[in-house]
Protein backbone atom coordinates (compact mmCIF):
# COMPACT_ATOMS: atom_id res chain seq x y z
CA UNK A 1 0.00 0.00 0.00
CA UNK A 2 1.29 3.46 -0.89
CA UNK A 3 2.29 5.72 1.98
CA UNK A 4 0.44 9.02 2.27
CA UNK A 5 2.56 12.18 2.30
CA UNK A 6 1.29 15.65 3.19
CA UNK A 7 3.62 17.89 1.27
CA UNK A 8 4.30 21.20 -0.48
CA UNK A 9 6.60 21.41 -3.50
CA UNK A 10 8.84 24.13 -2.01
CA UNK A 11 9.07 22.52 1.43
CA UNK A 12 12.64 21.41 2.07
CA UNK A 13 11.56 19.06 4.86
CA UNK A 14 9.13 17.35 2.47
CA UNK A 15 11.90 17.25 -0.16
CA UNK A 16 14.05 15.21 2.28
CA UNK A 17 11.28 12.68 2.73
CA UNK A 18 10.57 12.46 -1.02
CA UNK A 19 14.25 11.71 -1.69
CA UNK A 20 14.37 8.97 0.96
CA UNK A 21 11.13 7.35 -0.28
CA UNK A 22 12.43 7.43 -3.85
CA UNK A 23 15.84 6.03 -2.89
CA UNK A 24 14.08 3.16 -1.13
CA UNK A 25 11.74 2.61 -4.09
CA UNK A 26 8.65 3.18 -1.91
CA UNK A 27 5.35 4.35 -3.40
CA UNK A 28 3.57 7.40 -2.03
CA UNK A 29 0.38 9.32 -2.54
CA UNK A 30 0.76 13.07 -2.15
CA UNK A 31 -1.72 15.41 -0.51
CA UNK A 32 -0.70 18.97 -1.32
CA UNK A 33 -0.92 21.87 1.08
CA UNK A 34 -0.14 25.38 -0.11
CA UNK A 35 1.99 26.89 2.66
CA UNK A 36 1.93 30.43 1.22
CA UNK A 37 -1.89 30.27 1.28
CA UNK A 38 -1.89 29.06 4.91
CA UNK A 39 -3.29 25.55 4.25
CA UNK A 40 -1.12 24.23 7.11
CA UNK A 41 -3.31 26.18 9.58
CA UNK A 42 -6.57 24.56 8.48
CA UNK A 43 -8.33 22.88 11.41
CA UNK A 44 -8.53 19.53 9.59
CA UNK A 45 -4.78 19.54 8.95
CA UNK A 46 -3.91 20.65 12.51
CA UNK A 47 -5.67 17.53 13.74
CA UNK A 48 -3.17 15.59 11.64
CA UNK A 49 -0.12 17.74 12.43
CA UNK A 50 -0.60 19.95 15.51
CA UNK A 51 2.61 21.85 14.69
CA UNK A 52 1.00 23.03 11.41
CA UNK A 53 3.95 22.01 9.28
CA UNK A 54 4.72 19.56 6.49
CA UNK A 55 5.73 16.83 6.03
CA UNK A 56 3.43 14.34 7.68
CA UNK A 57 3.76 10.75 6.45
CA UNK A 58 1.34 7.89 7.04
CA UNK A 59 2.70 4.36 6.72
CA UNK A 60 -0.58 2.47 7.03
CA UNK A 61 -2.26 4.06 10.06
CA UNK A 62 1.09 4.99 11.64
CA UNK A 63 1.54 8.77 11.66
CA UNK A 64 5.05 10.17 11.33
CA UNK A 65 6.31 13.73 11.58
CA UNK A 66 9.67 15.60 11.67
CA UNK A 67 11.63 14.78 8.53
CA UNK A 68 14.78 13.43 10.20
CA UNK A 69 12.75 11.07 12.39
CA UNK A 70 10.92 9.95 9.24
CA UNK A 71 14.22 9.32 7.42
CA UNK A 72 15.46 7.20 10.31
CA UNK A 73 12.17 5.26 10.46
CA UNK A 74 12.34 4.55 6.73
CA UNK A 75 15.94 3.42 7.03
CA UNK A 76 15.17 1.07 9.92
CA UNK A 77 12.02 -0.34 8.33
CA UNK A 78 13.14 -0.50 4.70
CA UNK A 79 16.89 -1.06 5.06
CA UNK A 80 17.90 -1.13 1.37
CA UNK A 81 19.70 0.88 0.26
CA UNK A 82 21.00 2.03 3.66
CA UNK A 83 20.95 5.77 4.37
CA UNK A 84 23.16 5.60 7.45
CA UNK A 85 26.64 4.00 7.76
CA UNK A 86 27.05 0.79 9.78
CA UNK A 87 29.96 2.18 11.80
CA UNK A 88 28.80 4.13 14.89
CA UNK A 89 31.36 6.90 14.51
CA UNK A 90 30.52 7.45 10.84
CA UNK A 91 26.82 7.34 11.70
CA UNK A 92 27.27 10.09 14.28
CA UNK A 93 29.19 12.19 11.73
CA UNK A 94 26.44 11.74 9.12
CA UNK A 95 23.72 12.64 11.64
CA UNK A 96 25.71 15.67 12.80
CA UNK A 97 26.18 16.85 9.21
CA UNK A 98 22.46 16.43 8.55
CA UNK A 99 21.57 18.44 11.66
CA UNK A 100 23.57 21.44 10.41
CA UNK A 101 20.74 21.77 7.91
CA UNK A 102 17.77 20.29 9.77
CA UNK A 103 18.33 21.76 13.24
CA UNK A 104 20.44 24.88 12.79
CA UNK A 105 19.84 26.37 9.36
CA UNK A 106 16.49 25.37 7.86
CA UNK A 107 14.42 26.30 10.97
CA UNK A 108 15.57 29.92 10.58
CA UNK A 109 14.12 30.30 7.08
CA UNK A 110 10.75 28.49 7.21
CA UNK A 111 7.61 30.50 6.26
CA UNK A 112 6.49 31.16 9.87
CA UNK A 113 9.87 32.75 10.67
CA UNK A 114 9.98 34.71 7.40
CA UNK A 115 6.44 35.98 8.02
CA UNK A 116 7.30 36.97 11.60
CA UNK A 117 10.30 38.97 10.40
CA UNK A 118 8.25 41.06 8.01
CA UNK A 119 4.74 40.88 9.52
CA UNK A 120 5.57 41.29 13.24
CA UNK A 121 9.04 42.82 13.39
CA UNK A 122 8.50 45.02 10.35
CA UNK A 123 11.66 44.10 8.45
CA UNK A 124 11.83 45.15 4.82
CA UNK A 125 11.90 42.61 1.99
CA UNK A 126 15.61 43.38 1.52
CA UNK A 127 16.34 42.69 5.21
CA UNK A 128 14.32 39.47 5.07
CA UNK A 129 16.33 38.20 2.09
CA UNK A 130 19.59 39.22 3.81
CA UNK A 131 18.53 37.17 6.88
CA UNK A 132 17.77 34.11 4.73
CA UNK A 133 21.02 34.36 2.75
CA UNK A 134 23.04 34.87 5.93
CA UNK A 135 21.77 31.72 7.68
CA UNK A 136 21.87 29.59 4.56
CA UNK A 137 25.46 30.75 3.97
CA UNK A 138 26.44 29.91 7.55
CA UNK A 139 25.17 26.34 7.10
CA UNK A 140 26.84 26.00 3.70
CA UNK A 141 30.16 27.21 5.12
CA UNK A 142 29.96 24.66 7.93
CA UNK A 143 29.21 21.88 5.44
CA UNK A 144 32.09 22.99 3.18
CA UNK A 145 34.52 22.92 6.11
CA UNK A 146 33.29 19.51 7.29
CA UNK A 147 33.76 18.13 3.77
CA UNK A 148 37.24 19.69 3.44
CA UNK A 149 38.49 18.10 6.66
CA UNK A 150 37.38 14.53 5.83
CA UNK A 151 40.29 12.07 6.00
CA UNK A 152 39.07 9.85 3.13
CA UNK A 153 36.75 11.78 0.81
CA UNK A 154 34.31 9.64 -1.16
CA UNK A 155 31.90 10.45 -3.97
CA UNK A 156 29.28 11.58 -1.45
CA UNK A 157 29.43 13.23 1.98
CA UNK A 158 30.38 9.92 3.56
CA UNK A 159 31.60 7.17 1.27
CA UNK A 160 30.45 6.34 -2.23
CA UNK A 161 26.69 6.08 -1.77
CA UNK A 162 24.23 8.75 -0.66
CA UNK A 163 23.30 8.99 3.00
CA UNK A 164 21.09 11.19 5.12
CA UNK A 165 23.96 13.74 4.99
CA UNK A 166 23.61 14.08 1.21
CA UNK A 167 19.83 14.42 1.48
CA UNK A 168 20.35 17.32 3.90
CA UNK A 169 23.12 18.84 1.79
CA UNK A 170 20.57 18.92 -1.02
CA UNK A 171 18.01 20.73 1.13
CA UNK A 172 20.65 23.27 2.15
CA UNK A 173 21.56 24.08 -1.46
CA UNK A 174 18.07 24.24 -3.02
CA UNK A 175 16.78 27.16 -0.90
CA UNK A 176 20.16 28.88 -1.30
CA UNK A 177 19.64 28.72 -5.08
CA UNK A 178 16.06 29.92 -4.70
CA UNK A 179 17.18 32.91 -2.62
CA UNK A 180 20.15 33.62 -4.92
CA UNK A 181 22.87 32.97 -2.34
CA UNK A 182 26.39 33.05 -3.79
CA UNK A 183 27.43 29.38 -4.01
CA UNK A 184 30.94 29.91 -5.41
CA UNK A 185 32.59 29.66 -1.94
CA UNK A 186 31.29 26.09 -1.49
CA UNK A 187 32.85 23.98 -4.29
CA UNK A 188 32.83 20.69 -2.36
CA UNK A 189 29.19 21.10 -1.42
CA UNK A 190 28.29 21.92 -5.01
CA UNK A 191 30.23 18.97 -6.42
CA UNK A 192 28.23 16.58 -4.24
CA UNK A 193 25.04 18.45 -5.06
CA UNK A 194 25.69 17.86 -8.80
CA UNK A 195 26.40 14.20 -8.16
CA UNK A 196 23.14 13.81 -6.23
CA UNK A 197 21.18 15.51 -9.01
CA UNK A 198 22.44 12.81 -11.41
CA UNK A 199 20.49 10.25 -9.35
CA UNK A 200 16.81 10.04 -10.42
CA UNK A 201 15.64 9.58 -6.80
CA UNK A 202 17.06 13.04 -6.02
CA UNK A 203 16.25 14.76 -9.33
CA UNK A 204 12.63 13.54 -9.37
CA UNK A 205 12.11 14.73 -5.80
CA UNK A 206 13.20 18.28 -6.61
CA UNK A 207 10.61 21.01 -5.90
CA UNK A 208 10.32 22.01 -9.56
CA UNK A 209 9.40 18.40 -10.52
CA UNK A 210 6.41 18.20 -8.18
CA UNK A 211 2.83 18.29 -9.51
CA UNK A 212 2.02 21.31 -7.30
CA UNK A 213 5.07 23.30 -8.51
CA UNK A 214 4.33 26.84 -9.66
N1 LIG B 1 11.90 20.31 11.60
C1 LIG B 1 10.75 20.04 10.78
C2 LIG B 1 10.44 21.28 9.97
C3 LIG B 1 9.04 21.29 9.44
C4 LIG B 1 8.76 22.62 8.78
O1 LIG B 1 9.03 23.70 9.35
N2 LIG B 1 8.23 22.54 7.56
C5 LIG B 1 7.96 23.76 6.85
C6 LIG B 1 8.12 23.56 5.37
S1 LIG B 1 9.76 23.07 4.96
C7 LIG B 1 6.52 24.18 7.11
O2 LIG B 1 5.62 23.38 7.00
N3 LIG B 1 6.34 25.44 7.45
C8 LIG B 1 5.06 26.01 7.67
C9 LIG B 1 5.19 27.35 8.30
O3 LIG B 1 6.31 27.76 8.63
O4 LIG B 1 4.16 27.99 8.49
C10 LIG B 1 11.06 18.87 9.84
O5 LIG B 1 12.23 18.67 9.52
O6 LIG B 1 10.12 18.15 9.47
Walkthrough of the structure:
The structure is a single chain. Helices cover 50% and strands 8% of the residues. The chain contains nine helices and four strands, in the order βαβαββααααααα. It has a four-stranded mixed β-sheet, with helices on one face. Strand 3 and strand 4 form a beta hairpin. Helix 1 runs parallel beside helix 3, helix 4 runs parallel beside helix 7 and helix 6 (125-148) runs antiparallel to helix 7.
Indicate the radius of gyration in whole angstroms: 17 Å
Number of strands: 4
How far apart are the first and last residues' alpha carbons, in Å?
29 Å
Number of helix segments? 9
Short description:
This protein has 214 residues and is an alpha+beta fold.
Which secondary structure elements does this structure contain, and how are they paired or packed?
Blueprint: E1 3-7, H1 12-23, E2 28-32, H2 43-48, E3 56-59, E4 62-65, H3 67-77, H4 88-102, H5 111-120, H6 125-148, H7 164-178, H8 187-197, H9 200-203
Parallel strand pairs: 1-2
Antiparallel strand pairs: 1-3, 3-4
Helix pairs in contact: 1-3, 1-7, 4-7, 6-7, 7-8
This protein binds glutathione (GSH).
Keywords for this entry:
214 residues, alpha+beta, 4-stranded mixed beta sheet, 9 helices, 8% strand
Amino acid sequence: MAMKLFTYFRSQASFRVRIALNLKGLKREDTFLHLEHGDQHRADYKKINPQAVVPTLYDGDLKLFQSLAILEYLDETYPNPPLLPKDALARAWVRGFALVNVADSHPLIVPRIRNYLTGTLGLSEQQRVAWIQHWLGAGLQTMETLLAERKSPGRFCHGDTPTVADICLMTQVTPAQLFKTDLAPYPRVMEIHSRCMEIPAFANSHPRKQPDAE
